Every structure is written in structure tokens, then in C-alpha cells.
């Protein structure tokens, strides 16, 4: 059995207002909490025991997933009293692992949507004899990421943080946020203090002569850290571009949950999701967007690449493009909200008010 640690303690600051009331991994993507997709993919790869490393709004995870039996998993929960970083969070849950010193332990970040072949990563780890194996992916512009160059055998040779000059960009391979650790390596991480695996653990292991193996996997990969990325990821799940056994319905242009109500002449395209008890009025056009539970879109509204929070209301004929509307907010009729606008939870915008993003 391979077991796993899921790091789900982040505050999701870049996703606000979506994360004011809900931790990032619990924000719905394609009709279910995003974490459900990660758990389901891990189970499909043969993982049976997962420890969730929680912190922000930790109390919401266990009531939803319980002991994990509904997903065919055994789940445990460990809450950080103070933020410990990625390495500190991994070390903090080590006592809940069942693995022996040389056994592999999978580790996932709770905000990455990926089509990673989990079994292949574990097999690479085993066949290479590595202490840690990293999922690597290639990106066109690596300046916002940590670079991970490897030699001809896939062995990691360096960790380079966010290069800015052309000379510093020695590879397009980046750390994709999924790892396999030899259990004994986890026990070597300092306990009781913040530790970053990216900035501290991995470079120190490399300098000490440990074997770190990279596996480049070029399947779907998306960091869901921003509202725009989260909306895109949800749409890609619905469209079938991103794989998940947890999508509650067939892949296609739209996903309408059973208790939602959509007017017959409303048009939903581009992987749009209409959540439980949400309402879409006559003549509305919604493309590549997500409506969370209980949201209301009034007649004639046009919504593109946007996310509408739980219980929010969008007025008649209002146009949203690349916007985020928080839970319980009310955007009045005939507004136009353009790229980057965020409406806070429970806020009210009166009718016929035009809002522009700060960079326009």
C-alpha cells in the first residue's frame, strides 16, 4: 500500500473573496469541492490511506469527508496550531503514517489540478532508488516558478528560485508540487518550526548528497492559486480536458447539478457549472463560468469566465467578464464588471453602476 499526505492548510489569500468562508481545497470545482478530485484520483491510483495536513478553517474538512470510506479511503486529519510551511506540515503529520523507513509516501499540494500519472511517479521513485522523487512539468515562461534542472538520467542537479534574467533560465522544468518521499527522509525534517521543502529541505538534501529524482510528466497541469485559474480549472474538468473520476456527470459544455433551475432559452457553454439550487433566468448567456450553490442569475445577464459565489445574485442584463463575486453579494441590474474585478462577500452594487478594474 502507498499512503499519502495532502497539504491543505493554506489560506488561499490570492483567491479571496472565494476563500473568506471556505478553505481553498473546499471551493467547488466542477460541482464538488476541489479536494474531492484529488482524493478520487489518488484512490484510483491505489492509495488507501491519506493524512490531510490542515490549518486554515480546518474544522470544515472532517464533517464533509469523514473517515473517507465513501471514497474508498481511510482519512485522518492533523491541524497545525501555527503555520509550519510545506516541510513543517509534512513533518507535523509523520506520526500518523503507517509506512516503514524505506517505504514511499506520496505528497500532494492541495491547489494543483493535474493529470499526473501517479503510478508512474511511484514506479520512477522505486526503480531509481531515490530518497525523494519530484513531479516536474515544463512551462513556456518559468520566471514565476522554481526551476529544477536534471541530468540525462533524470537526477536533480539544482533548485533555482524564480529566475529573472535569460542567463538564469537554464531549463523549462519546474517543480509541479507532487512528490514521493522515502519515509525516513520525512523523519529528518526539523519538527516544531516552519520549514519550506522548496527552499530548505530539497536544497539541503541535495547538498548532503541525497538522491533526488525528477520525473517530467507533460500531461495537464494548472496551479489554481488565482480566481482566473480556478475558474479555468473547473471548466477544464467539465470539458474533459483535465481528468477526474469525481466529476458528477458527463463531460461536456456544461454541468448542471440536479437541483438547479435553468431557463429553457438560457445558453450555457465552455464548461459552465451551475451549482445546487442555483437559478439561471431567461435569455442569460454564461460561458466558462461557475455558479456556486444558491446563486441567482437574472434574465438577460451575460457572464464570461467568472465565478459567482454561494447565494450571490447577478441582476438582469448585467455583464461580467473575468469577475469574481463573493458569497451572498448582490450585483444590481445593468452593471458591467470587467477583468479582475472582485466583489466582496455580502456586498451590494446598486443598479446601473459601471466598475472597471484598477489597471484599466
From TrEMBL:
Source organism superkingdom: Bacteria
Domain Mannose-1-phosphate guanyltransferase C-terminal: 252-333
UniProt domain Nucleotidyl transferase: residue ranges: 4-236
InterPro entries the record matches: GMPPB_C, Mannose-1P_guanyltransferase, NTP_transferase_dom, Nucleotide-diphossugar_trans
Any Pfam family hit: NTP_transferase
PANTHER family, A to Z: SUGAR-1-PHOSPHATE GUANYL TRANSFERASE
Family: Belongs to the transferase hexapeptide repeat family.
Protein name: NDP-sugar synthase
Amino acid at each position: 500500500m502507498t499512503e499519502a499526505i495532502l497539504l491543505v492548510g493554506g489560506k488561499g489569500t490570492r483567491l479571496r473573496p472565494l476563500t473568506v468562508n471556505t478553505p481553498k481545497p473546499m471551493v467547488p470545482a466542477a460541482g464538488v469541492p476541489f479536494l474531492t478530485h484529488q482524493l478520487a484520483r489518488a484512490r484510483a491510483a491505489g492509495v488507501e490511506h491519506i493524512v490531510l495536513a490542515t490549518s486554515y478553517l480546518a474544522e470544515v474538512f472532517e464533517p464533509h469527508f469523514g473517515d473517507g470510506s465513501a471514497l474508498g479511503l481511510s482519512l485522518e486529519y492533523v491541524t497545525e496550531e501555527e503555520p509550519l510551511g510545506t516541510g513543517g506540515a509534512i513533518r507535523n503529520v509523520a506520526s500518523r503514517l503507517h509506512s516503514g523507513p524505506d517505504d514511499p509516501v506520496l505528497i500532494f499540494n492541495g491547489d494543483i489540478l493535474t493529470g499526473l500519472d501517479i503510478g508512474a511517479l511511484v514506479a520512477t521513485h522505486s526503480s531509481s532508488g531515490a530518497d525523494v522523487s519530484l513531479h516536474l512539468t515544463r512551462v513556456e515562461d518559468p520566471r514565476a516558478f522554481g526551476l529544477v534542472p536534471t541530468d540525462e538520467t533524470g537526477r536533480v542537479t539544482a533548485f533555482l528560485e524564480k529566475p529573472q534574467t535569460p542567463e538564469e533560465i537554464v531549463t523549462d522544468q519546474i517543480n509541479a508540487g507532487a512528490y514521493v518521499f522515502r519515509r525516513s527522509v520525512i523523519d529528518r525534517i526539523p519538527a516544531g518550526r516552519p520549514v519550506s521543502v522548496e527552499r530548505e529541505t530539497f536544497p539541503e538534501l541535495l547538498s548532503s548528497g541525497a538522491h533526488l529524482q525528477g520525473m517530467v510528466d507533460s500531461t495537464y497541469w494548472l496551479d489554481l492559486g488565482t480566481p482566473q485559474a480556478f475558474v479555468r480549472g473547473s471548466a477544464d474538468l467539465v470539458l474533459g480536458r483535465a481528468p477526474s473520476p469525481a466529476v458528477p456527470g458527463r463531460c461536456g459544455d456544461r454541468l448542471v447539478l440536479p437541483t438547479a433551475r435553468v431557463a429553457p432559452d438560457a445558453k450555457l457553454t465552455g464548461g459552465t457549472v451551475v451549482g445546487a439550487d442555483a437559478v439561471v433566468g431567461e435569455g442569460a448567456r454564461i460561458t466558462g463560468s461557475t455558479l456556486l450553490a444558491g446563486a441567482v442569475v437574472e434574465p438577460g445577464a451575460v457572464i464570461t469566465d467568472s465565478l459567482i459565489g454561494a447565494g450571490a445574485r447577478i441582476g438582469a442584463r448585467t455583464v461580467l467578464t473575468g469577475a469574481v463575486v463573493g458569497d451572498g453579494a448582490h450585483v444590481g441590474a445593468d452593471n458591467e464588471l470587467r477583468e479582475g474585478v472582485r466583489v466582496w462577500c455580502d456586498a451590494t452594487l446598486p443598479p446601473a453602476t459601471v466598475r472597471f478594474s484598477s489597471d484599466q
